[in-house]
């Protein structure tokens, strides 16, 4: 039991050690630029020393089992020699019988030694199974409703689809520390909405709730009049197209990163690329759409990766399009291309745009201004400037900085 506990702690320390190595390799540029080599090396040594101490404990328990069994075998054979020797001297036992008995005793302890070695290996295996079991038994918080009782969204091009309604939604990541407070609003089908506010106002949390990555603590969210809890996650996320700030790419070619394993025709792929103005840069790649991308798209610029993420969303023809700081990593030239594409993409679609650069959201239908998880202002760009509230203050600060 003690061996298993020590081995479990050793595995945990090894996980921390591997995590630290991976973190420092990925962030090597920051480590070098801020001269953190010695500091990070000291942190590594601290974790390494804890790992070594736990491994020493497992080695101690492992050795204790083997040593104990070895001593038992030596004492047993010594006892046989002493008792058998006396019997040989008294001529009640011949020397050949004693030799055979000692040989049999040695053979008896050999499988016991092997069993001791296997015992520690089995205990180590139990530790691994225990850690895997902890992960497998982690409860899934977001559960789909029974398919027989689930409701469906109509996947048809229609200007009457794409309504979003938040009904007194509250949300806390932990306990009662609410990051969303009593949000109550309706976004009409085809309406273009911008979410603005200071850092930590809850903009990204709204998107996570809408995509049902988290459940509201209180209240409910409806899409086209259907509570999203009554829609399967797969169907809801086909209905939504989300483009994040970081366009994550998988190892594979450009075509596979647009389709993500789904069956689309070549014509659909080309249409998605052309509608997002990225066809020209893809055709300039060495093998075009068959160009192999390195891990996380390391052989593409940040702007090119983001453009592929746009095409990935557009090809699925979502009724609701969500852009979470989607143009933040684009240079001016690329942003002009994507802005032109966006003007075409969001036609007849409901769009929610999160942007820190307020100059990019002047033409939306309404702007929702958030502060500490609450909706404090809403209206058009001009209406909010006339109110002279939080939005006007943020806008003036940005204009002063340009």
Feature tags:
402 residues; alpha/beta; four-stranded antiparallel β-sheet
Task: Describe this protein's structure.
The protein has 402 residues and is of the alpha/beta class. The chain has 2 domains: 2-136, Up-down Bundle (ABC transporter transmembrane region fold), CATH 1.20.1560; 164-401, 3-Layer(aba) Sandwich (Rossmann fold), CATH 3.40.50.300. The protein is 52% helix and 15% strand. It contains 13 helices and 12 strands. The chain has helices spanning 2-26, 28-33, 37-89, 95-136, 203-210, 233-239, 254-259, 266-275, 279-283, 302-314, 332-345, 381-387, 390-401, and strands at residues 164-172, 178-187, 192-196, 218-223, 226-227, 240-243, 252-253, 292-293, 320-324, 350-354, 366-371, 374-379. It has a 6-stranded mixed beta sheet, sandwiched between helices. It has a 4-stranded antiparallel beta sheet with strand order 2-1-4-5, with helices on one face. The protein has a two-stranded antiparallel ribbon with strand order 7-8. Strand 1 and strand 2 (178-187) form a beta hairpin. Helix 1 (2-26) packs across helix 4, helix 3 (37-89) packs antiparallel against helix 4 (95-136) and helix 8 (266-275) crosses helix 10 (302-314). The mean pLDDT is 82.
